Amino acid sequence: DLRLLAGLTKVSRTHRLTPTDCPQLLYPDCFSAAVVSNKQNMGDEGEAPPAEEEVAAPPGETRTLTVSLTTATKLFEVGEEADPAATSASFTFGAEDEATENPEPVQADAEGNFTYNLTKEYTKTVGIDFLTELLNVPVCVTLYNCAGGGKVPICSATLDLSSFVYGEVSCGGELPLQELPQEAAEPITLVPDAKVTVTASLAEGEAPVVTKEESEKACIMTVRIPEAVPCPPEMLAASKAAEGPFLVNTGIALVGRTAWCKGGTVVDDMLSWEAAPVERFYMTEKDAEDLKHLLRPVNLGTRPGGMLSVEVARYLSPDKTELTDPFFENYHGVSKLKGLEGLVEPGDTKTVCEATLIQWKEGAPTVMPVPEYEGKSAVPEDLPEPGLCPWVHYKVKLTVEISLSRPLIPTWEAPPTPQLSITDLLPKHPPAVKITAKEAAKKKFRECVKSVVANLADEYSSMFPGSAGAMASLGDDIKRKQFVFELNRSGSYYHLKEKLKEAVVQVVREFFSKVSDLSDVEKKSLYDDLYVFLIDEMHAVLRGLYTGTDPLKEPAKPPVGDCTLAEYSLTKLKKLADEQEVNGVIDVAKKYHQQRLILAPKDVEVWYEHGAFCMRNQDLGQAEEALREGLLVAEDHFPTLMALVLLLMTKNEFEDAEVYAQTLMKAHGGSVLVWMILTLLYTMMGKEKEMINCEYEMNRLIKAEVAANKAESEVAKSEAAKSERGEDESGEAAAAVEGDEAKTEGGASAGASAAPSEAGGAAQTPATPATPAEGQTPPGSAPTGGEDVPEEDVQPIDPAREALSQRYFLELAVVMLDHHTGSLAANVLGFVTDSVDSKLCLARAAMIQKIEGVAFDRIVEAMTMAPEDYRGHELIGHVHFEQGRLEDARDAYQIALDKAKEQCTLAVFLRLGKVYLELNMFEEARRLYEVACEVQPCASTWLGAGIANYRINNPSIAEECLSEANLYDYLSPKVWGYLALVLIELGRVAEAEQALGEANKNFLDDASILAEIGRKYYVKGMYRQAEGNLRLALKYGAEPATRCMLGDARAAQKDLVGAKEEYLAALEADSSVEGQQSVLKQLIDVCAQGNESSEVAQYTAKLNALST
User: Model pTM?
Assistant: First the structure.
């Protein structure tokens, strides 16, 4: 650029210019424009860049910078007879600045010092340009020897102004002087420690260019290019022929700016930037944040982040005005920098990048202006073929070193300890009050009495629900007799007696210890005392209940099975709880879990499984309580801590979740899942620093595992190769003896051997996601490049690391789904590439959140990807089943079983069996349950088989199936109830009564079974038994038809008043026309038998009204 040369005429020809003297030597004006945003550089290359315009700087604040050159110390020795030393000084700030200098030489004082007193003010607009200028352009000072009327530059100094970008308002002082090369016959030698005083300051009262706070958050980038290799031979030859005419400039497109590194030259047969000045770039806090977010890895750090583009172009040196370069387009290259991830490692400020250059495509965005040369002669260069890009032809690689003044991400540190500790959050149980054995026995007896009273009240209210109408006509004695009969018949009396017996035995042991050799009188006295004691205690309890001093808040039936469940082991109780949860009988499943807690209150696994069960069934309060209790047993239990963190995250109680998450971190810091959940937690809390640190540690563990897996794989391959060669210790010894020939054969064999490959199979359940084989790129993660950009220029993805990361994401998502935290799982699955497993997990998440449409879409997508996978049909069946679409559920479940019955879950068999029974497809149900009993035998599958056989009139086979179910769960009231039905059908009424007694002892509360038993007894003419079962059925919510049947049973026993009462109750409960017509007919009949003509007429009129 000839405009640069105009500034060189002011410098003596004897002064060899250096970049320090004139920084713009390598930065002509034509290079300082065309700043293109990084987004443009990384975007489509089909759009041409907008035309360059000179835009005036926007109006803003200004600062007045005053530069003063005041004095210099003694510079050189002067002979005694020589004239006094005379010098002059000048300084410039920037290449375009006119030098400020002394108009006349300055004489040295007596001590040889010089006083120049040069001052100049510069008015600058505050902005990025001014800040960059302060960083890169020093105040250049030159001192001249003026002896004999000449003016020869003898020394120089530079004042670095970068302190202004760190919040300072002044800088400078005494600067050391550097001797310049002199062409004089007798060059002057500077005295040691020669110095010049130069200062720079802002005008008084002006604020700093950058405040201290801003400077701490800002970042200074320095770009250095050591070399580009190899240097194209044609360029090397042309450089030698034309005596170094070339300058190679590079531009790195930052976010909204361009970082330049200019002035690369051919030195010693290589392309080097060593002689070029190193330029620094000021980045504001926002600029640094933008760069950080661009470069930071995505997908929670598991995938590389964005990249920066770098451009390279060759220009002619400004002093080669006679030349022109026809090969500018050939030497215009572009690439993406690899290795930038080093800048987003915590605490790191340096990185070394590489770029393999390709040719810039015409019309693509660029930061390189096209030069306009005025020379006539072309550079002496011949390319092998027209249009050839030497950067591409010779595979030139550019090395770029980037350093920052501060790390974009602070040095890694563990998350700060919360103010609360886990001890503060766990429940505080008061110390157990020590009570004597006698007090414990008395307390237990009173609790048993209260429980018995509650049961009796419950039974009585169900038998005699009201006191109006015919009920009022029954005397107390009749009610008492009926009540006692029902208690004996149902087995309730036996159960209550057994409960009290245990408490009475404990009372006797503590209060009436056995004494040997008691006489009959003493024995009678002992019994009397015991009777009085028990009666007094019972009265105390009744008095408290009557007065309200100790009321029973919930006089409901006691827990299922009560203490008899203690006969079951923890494992069996867990299996039964899971089975009932699948059946949807949540109350019973919960009681099984509670019984496990009674059996093993110090087993943390039992507490965890109860808490997880409560989470799955949305009883979050009970779940949190159970999980906290579990941590009192074992504070570092991984599943319990994980479940509690997920629960609290769902409830948005992040501070408490952080306490438990950090406990998890301290106990299991080597788990990737722990750091993954911490990353998610801090993301939700908006704590970026902690989130980045946890993300970094998570990825460090993943990288370490990948490295360990690769090392293990290499060892396995080596062992496999040795095995193929048959080399063991003895073989190696033999080979050593056989000599070089054997060794050669062994080496050839080793080179030809191949490690066995492992094929990755499809996952069978969402809980065990498929993992790609080593070296296989997971779906959706393959790098892609543009048409003109080779694949290796795109930031690579490590397939092994990607596969492992995906596996952990899926594993965490499955944990969340198993605890029914669907929203959290959906967020995690957003980091997972599309696969069958991820689609199915997304479907589960949608099902938990009750988003049926999304669940269907994801399942269909999964089935499209893997048509033979049974899991999609299984999930679709669940969706239909939960929405009550039984036919659709049946079809989906059946397809899943046809595809993989061995792998289907128990829920598929039990739900499909229930659907078949509901749809009266009893033969299909029988076949299904036969398969289920073979594949997944349990109480429910055998029970289903028994019901199906009973419905198709195979009572003998049904009895066998129910007996098998009884072996799996002999305390199941439903099994005993159906067994009673089958035995009645077989005519074995006595055995049926025993089975029914067992069913009632275990609190059979299935109204449909009890009603059917009542109907069976009624058909067989056993009206008293029918009445008892029908009453129980009504107690547990049977339909109005059951009440009508009860009226029939009472009428058959000639209890016309009771029958009428039941019919009236049925008439009131049944709102259907058909039902009311049927009941009215029976009312008319029973009233006729009682000669109640007026009521017959009344009910007949109602019947006629309904008929019309």
Answer: 0.73
